[in-house]
Design goal:
- The complex is a heterodimer of chains A (181) and B (202).
- With 181 residues, chain A is mostly helical.
- Chain A has a single domain (2-180), classed as Arp2/3 complex 21 kDa subunit ARPC3.
- Chain A contains seven helices and no strands.
- In chain A, α1 runs antiparallel to α2 (35-46) and α1 (2-20) crosses α3 (48-63).
- With 202 residues, chain B is mostly helical.
- Chain B is built from nine helices and no strands.
- Chain B has helices spanning 17-31, 37-52, 56-65, 70-83, 86-109, 112-123, 125-128, 134-164, 174-194.
- In chain B, α2 runs parallel beside α5 (86-109).
- The longest helix of chain B is centred in the last third of the chain and has 31 residues, at 134-164.
- Classes of the chains: A mainly alpha (181), B mainly alpha (202).
- Chains A and B meet through α1, α2, α3 and α7 of A and α1, α4, α5, α6 and α8 of B.
């Protein structure tokens, strides 16, 4: 109980830290933060249930007004702004990413984690994110999709990176990769 | 770590957090039902007035809180201008400003402790279903405590990278930062267990 709770809390902190670090550029010149990488890692490392709980905990503290979101943002206003869909999609993304890693025990961890991060962290997340933008900006679904498309290349890199980090963690800290424990 | 609560003391600070949250939830819900730009303009004026009754500087602070929103306001306005329907664009932009401004008002005038208490109170019915909520309080406190710690350790990793390489720190640091988080977690969990775990008060 204690160990699970603390791991969940520290991964919530990890999402925040990955979003707050300013100087990590992942390429392509598009200003992308590693925040969604943190969300992917929650799923692929902690598994579906604990991973999504870590993301929910992170979101709860953001909603309460802690400046934990990329760029030091936080507060309830974010949940009324156009990016709300991505926030709502975060825990679902982590859940799906974790579920895919958990349910593919015959697949090696590296491809399973990349697949999980890809389907959860991009597929599911963008579905929610685009829906949120379509509603708040009063746009059709394809129009909103166009608005977020510049960020997809960066997220593809992040999904691959999440896979590699997860596989490396399985070697460095095997007991802590709970998605395959 | 600083919360986003405003340093200006306002009358809103004394309102119960639950009341503010309920009012804002209802307010934002209705904003999305309104289509008329005139009514939405009135809503923006109303929200601005809610800031202004505290003082001019509080309004300025509130406007600066809206900074992440301007890019979306610009996109919507330009989009609708090109589409030949500027009035609809103005309505969407006004709705965004009113909704986010209203929600920010709660964040700016409510202490973190009060909101944390509210969350734990809202979760308390779960106890009756046999779900323990004490770990949730612990977990929230842990994130507040360990985000700056982990951030500091990440900073040290970045510095040591810079000391060794002419290249900019990049994706290579994600792995050691994650290992740091895991190691901290295992250590804290052990310390917690040694001190009686969640059965004691945080």
């Amino acid at each position: 109980m204690e160990r699970n709770t603390v791991l969940i809390a520290l991964f919530a902190a990890l999402i925040a830290v990955l979003g707050l670090i300013p100087k990590i550029t992942l390429g392509f010149g598009v200003p992308i933060t590693a925040q969604s990488l943190g969300v992917m890692l929650c799923g692929t490392v902690l598994g579906a249930r604990r991973g999504s709980l870590a993301v929910l905990l992170f979101l709860l503290l953001v909603a309460l007004g802690l400046p934990l979101l990329a760029g030091g943002r936080g507060g309830l206003g974010l949940f009324a702004s156009p990016t709300v869909g991505f926030l709502v999609g975060f825990p679902v993304a982590a859940f799906v990413a974790g579920l895919i890693v958990e349910k593919t025990p015959r697949l090696a961890l590296l491809p399973a984690a990349i697949l999980g991060a890809f389907v959860g962290g991009i597929g599911v997340l963008y579905l929610f994110g685009i829906a949120g933008m379509a509603i708040t900006l009063d746009k059709s679904f394809p129009e909103a999709a166009l608005l977020v498309s510049p960020f997809i290349p960066g997220d593809l890199i992040k999904a691959a990176l999440a896979g590699f980090v997860t596989a490396a963690l399985a070697k460095a800290r095997p007991a802590s990769v709970l998605s395959r424990a | 770590m600083l919360a986003l609560t405003s340093s200006t003391r306002t009358a809103y600070h004394r309102w119960p957090a639950s009341l503010k949250l309920a009012l804002v939830s209802v307010g934002v819900f209705f904003l999305y039902l309104i289509e008329s730009p005139v009514l939405l303009l009135a809503a923006v004026a109303g929200v601005a007035l809610a800031y202004l009754v505290v003082g001019w500087r509080f309004l300025v602070e509130g406007v600066s809180f809206l900074r992440p929103l301007w890019v979306f306001v610009a996109i919507v306005l330009v989009w609708h201008l090109i589409a030949g329907d500027p009035v609809a664009g103005v309505a969407v932009a006004l709705r965004l400003v009113a909704a986010v401004g209203l929600a920010n008002l709660v964040t700016m005038t409510t202490r973190l402790d009060d909101l944390t208490d509210l969350v734990l109170w809202l979760l308390s019915p779960l106890e009756r279903l046999g779900i323990r909520t004490a770990p949730i309080g612990y977990a929230m406190a842990l994130v507040v405590r360990f985000t700056p710690v982990l951030f500091g350790k990440a900073g040290t990793l970045i510095e040591s990278w810079r000391a060794r390489s002419a290249r900019r720190p990049g994706w290579q640091l994600v792995m050691p930062i994650t290992v740091t988080a895991i190691d901290d977690a295992e250590q804290v969990a052990e310390a917690l267990r040694a001190r009686g775990g969640f059965d004691t008060q945080p």
